[in-house]
Amino acid sequence: MAVIQYKDFKQLRNKLRGKKLVFCSGTFDITHAGHVLFFEDCKALGDLLVVGIGNDEACKRHKGSGSGRPVLNEYLRLKMVSSLKPVDYCFLHGTSSEKQPHNSLLEEIFTRLKPDIYAFNSDVADVDYRKKLAEKYKVEVRVLERKSPPEFEEISTTKIIEKVQKIRL
User: What domains can you pick out in the chain, each with its CATH number?
Assistant: First the structure.
């Protein structure tokens, strides 16, 4: 529930010595129940959950500059995610001035934060590279399947955007 910065990682890790720290990351644009389910699954893997949120620049690179994404800016997304019950700490992946690719940021996070577990969904890009990188830093990897209760509709930010676009005012 606290927002942290890269400079806080080492101090935080020392403070949390003996606790199993789970790390996950993503864009989390238009936060929805699917994100909450993912965070609950991640939190169940350890004692504390730290969430990295891709900044606006990273989101535009990942989703495409003409996509109109992110819908919500990085500070709104950070506020939403930090307020969710399963999330203990969250931070922005880099700053808007950094040009590092995602994997370089992961190396920095693994080096400074030293998570015990790195959790991500099975449909992310470069799964094999992420696994090898985590192994290099002796971080356990947990690949989670996207799932939701049968009474939920299929949940995704893209589907929410498409549904909203169909609404006639």
Answer: 2-166 (3.40.50.620)
Nearest to 109 by CA among 96, 120, 93, 97: 93
Phi, psi values for residue 144, rounded to 5°:
-105, 140
| pTM, two decimal places | 0.89
User: On the CB side of 28, how many CA atoms lie within 13 Å of its CA?
Assistant: 32
The structure tokens 């965070």 sit at: 39
DSSP per-residue letters across 36-104? HHHHHHHHTTSSEEEEEEE-HHHHHHHH-GGG---SS-HHHHHHHHHTSTT-SEEEEES-TT----HHH
For 116-151, what is each residue's pLDDT tens digit? 999 999 988 889 999 999 999 999 999 999 888 888
User: Does the structure show a pLDDT above 50 at 55?
Assistant: yes
Mean pLDDT, rounded, of the chain: 88
